[in-house]
Amino acid sequence: MMKDKMIFCDNLTYKYTNHQDGEEKLAIDGVDLEINQGEFVVVLGHNGSGKSTIAKHMNALLLPTEGKMYIDKMDSSDIKNLWNIRSTAGMVFQNPDNQLVATIVEEDVAFGPENLGVEPKEIRQRVDNSLKRVGMYEYRKHAPHLLSGGQKQRVAIAGILAMMPKCIVLDEPTAMLDPLGRKEVIDTVKELNDEFGITIVLITHYMEEAIKADRVIVMDNGKVILEGTPKEVFSQVPLMKKIGLDVPQVTELAYELNKVGLNVSKEILSIDEMVNALCQLK
Ligand code: ADP
Ligand code: MG
Fold it and tell me: May I ask which residue range the UniProt record assigns to the signal sequence (predicted)?
């Protein structure tokens, strides 16, 4: 049922049309997908599999060519829902430099609620709270362009938070960051999910981010070809490799040990779990 789903796709289909030659490209191919309120979902898939296209449907930046997309029960094809959808599901993109518009951090964060017509006093509160939640309050008077990549992405997330969304969709937010910046951003996202129950849809290439999710969705060629807990998904070693995705080294080791007849669980994601499994072999 669509009821109480944060994201609900019904036969979602999207074709890009090249307006020069009329050429069509089927980017999303009849996807059915449900994401619950409060869930932390990671979307994996190699380049061109349709991840960004589906993400853009989640806040009505793109509208389905066929099928339906509902965001918190709102039909994205109904133009009346547009602003409600945009404030329900905020979006964070890959390049932090393209998202920050103001010359002072707190002005940037105020931008979203200002556009929504929120009262100035309330904006002040929301800006302060949002910056505190992402650990950037001390930087509120700084110039965004002087911050690190990870700090910029956290300011971008604060800007979304200030609109009080129920859901945040992040399209490879860590792709341009160094390891420390990646950790800052992912820890922030995880905390927003744990503490405030904000639904998270995170598109990423990094396995260490995917294993933190409640559920992993794997896309290939415009379709969802695999979904489950991180353990269920990564233990499908041959399938993951076939579509060009990596699995954690210990998961692959568990798979190989099984192949040569050792009875260890295939659902292993960490070295600790591997050590336990091996100790039990005796
Ligand atoms: P991903 O984010 O997984 O890399 P995308 O959603 O960006 O994948 O792209 C899915 C498919 O749609 C790819 O084949 C890509 O080439 C195509 N595509 C993406 N954007 C456009 C566009 N603006 N015009 C035409 N085709 C596009
Ligand atoms: Mg993409």
Answer: none
